[in-house]
Amino acid sequence: MSITQVTVTEEGSISGALQRSKKTKRNWKKLWFLLRDKVLYTYRVQEEKVASESLPLLGFTVKLPEKQWGEEEANVFQLYHKNTLYYSFRAEDTYTAERWVNAMEEATVL
């Protein structure tokens, strides 16, 4: 399996590589993510056995950016908590971004 491939299992989880920037910073870092049971787990690489971060998504909101700055901003979606930007994510293509947005939206509600 390539590192950019997104995998969905029967349990409704999704995993794959995304780029992430924290809050309003513009530096992107490629990481591996797993969303399962309404928790987003972050791994430095796909092969890691233990997540470096875990973030329960209940109470968060997933949004598309209000403005796109150019082609590099395509496929970007953002995670907010109480109207404060928490993370921005960038997927390799629109299809992957839409799958992550849908999965995260489901994970933000009971």
Automatic annotation (TrEMBL):
GO cellular component, one term: cytoplasm
Composition bias, Polar residues: 1-18
GO molecular function terms attached to this record: guanyl-nucleotide exchange factor activity
Stored Gene3D superfamilies: Pleckstrin-homology domain (PH domain)/Phosphotyrosine-binding domain (PTB)
InterPro entries xrefs: FYVE_RhoGEF_PH, PH-like_dom_sf, PH_domain
Domain PH: 11-109
Recorded coiled-coil stretches: none
First and last residue of the signal peptide: none
Region spans: Disordered: 1-24
PANTHER family: FACIOGENITAL DYSPLASIA PROTEIN (PTHR12673), FYVE, RHOGEF AND PH DOMAIN-CONTAINING PROTEIN 5 (PTHR12673:SF13)
Protein name: FYVE, RhoGEF and PH domain-containing protein 5-like isoform X1
Native organism: Notothenia coriiceps
Taxonomic lineage from the root: Eukaryota, Metazoa, Chordata, Craniata, Vertebrata
